[in-house]
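Sample pair:
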Amino acid sequence: MKKNSYLPLIAMVAIGLFSCKTETKNEQILTKEITFTKEGELSLFDLQDSIPMVIQKLDIEIADDEYQIQTGLMYRKSMQNNQGMLFTFPNEAPRSFYMKNTEFPLDIIFINSKNKVVSIQKNAQPLNESSLPSEGPAQYVLEVNAGLSEKWNLRSGDSISIVKL
């Protein structure tokens, strides 16, 4: 009979250990805003006339590894009009971008290995996962705030120069 007196105690311990009760904690997850880091300067040139003219100079952040290229401007709230993100690839190829987790509209400028603008996807809409392809092979892709390529009258055939810091 002694064995039976321990059964209620063992049952209570087992219930306590394997209870489905979950504790709720009021933990607050803090996120740090991603800020712009100037890593270079980029100049855009109008090559339509015989004398190249500077269209615009930008401070740029450079995305040149797999993680940076995949993340780009995702999770950011905005970007200044004198800033851009330049994606650099090891080779020239047809490129396609999308706006997943990007919270503000952009102009996406595709640039070939000779630093010439190939095509522009204007006013890419925030959070849209539709494919936005280049119209030709590109080695670089420049993202700027939507409307700036129109304001600058940027066209295919215009050129860039890059100075990395």
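Helices lie at 2-17, 66-71, 148-151.
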